[in-house]
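Morning!

This is the sequence you dropped in the shared folder:
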Amino acid sequence: MLLASAGTAAAGGALAQGSAATNVATNVALGAALPAGQGWATAWAGSAQGPYPIGNPSAQPNQSFAFPDAAEGARDQSFRLVLRPDLWGRSARLRFSNAFGSRPLRLAGVHAGLQLGGATLVPGSNRAVRFGGQAGVTIAPGGQIWSDPVELAFATDPDSILLAGRKLAVSFTVEGSSGPMTWHAKALQTSYVSPPGSGAHGAAESEENYPYSTASWFFLDAVDMTAPAGTPVIVCFGDSITDGTASTMNGDDRWPDVLARRLHARLGNRVAVVNAGIGGNQVVGPAEYTVEKPFPGGPSALARLERDVISLSGVKTLIWLEGTNDFSRNGNATLEAVQDGLRQGTRRLREAIPGIRLVAATVTPALGSSSPAHGHAEQDEKRRGLNAFLRSSGLFDAVVDFDAATRDPASGGLRPEMVPDSTIGAAGDKLHPNRAGYLAMGTGIELSAVLPPR
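The structure's back. Tokens below.
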């Protein structure tokens, strides 16, 4: 079994100690030759945010049957994670993370196939995934690793309209006990888990071994696809309003999803939009993040830039929507601190990815929110100050005005039709836009603002 050490494999070790420094994972897959004119493009991301169960999931089923002991995590059981790549290629590679683990993570029986429905796969679509030619891998605490390329037999024509919007099912088995599980809490997508002690079921294309559902993603945090060299990847970076809180469960109607569909209508399978939002995330807080002292919103945006943006493949544009949580009673940051954080972040991005197009999104209103941490006048004053800074600072190449798309001129809060929660049908919190709000945000973006110059 291949061993991925924290030193050679990834961001998590340094990041879990509160540092922004990370090492990009390396293995034979990264050096594998691709056909002429082809490169890797990140087609999906699920930013690792902490150890389960710390985080902000939405519509989460009872997880106690799948994971009876959070400290022990997964135990000799299989996962079938469902995700929607925004770009299809003939081959894929997968990035697994143990960023917030405290013991070596042993994965085996990794497979990738096309979802038919529920936990069932399209017959004949499932393919075994290797790591350095081996069937399994051990990832050290704080580590991550890319798989070898796996050919997707069902994607021989990646441009086929019949693949658009289809979902990939990534299956794998945790051997032994994982300990604290690195996860992305708010998937807003149903995935599946076998019972503890049930063993390896990744090769099976049927669903009977996966009785438990989850609304989160575990261990997997990125998927690359082969694509024509230079295919632009647009990263949407932010907090719960990018992560999609209050959008439709399994509906793929977060504002990045809306933007992606508009871009595909123009460019076809020649662009990818990936979501690097984390519910509760802040630009500059928390000051300290460790596995022993986690924070529901994950490490700060500055602390996760390397792992969640810079280390992804083919990134040409970043859209940054953040600040609400910094100004909440959980963050209590000054306007000046957030402005300085954005200066630091944009400088690092331009140094790491020459020519990257940086787009600021104005922060949406939360005035009058029912959330105890949000909705107060001081938060709104800082929000308006940050929006003025974004429009005038010159830090960004373009600005998209989400504030104008969602603010009710009469109340200063969210427009009334954007308040009811689309996930669970509740009243809404006047903080997170619903499907109608995300639709207005995604359709209000000028496509020329986010596409890199040709």
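Headline: The first strand starts at residue 2 and ends at 4.

More detail when I'm at my desk.
O.
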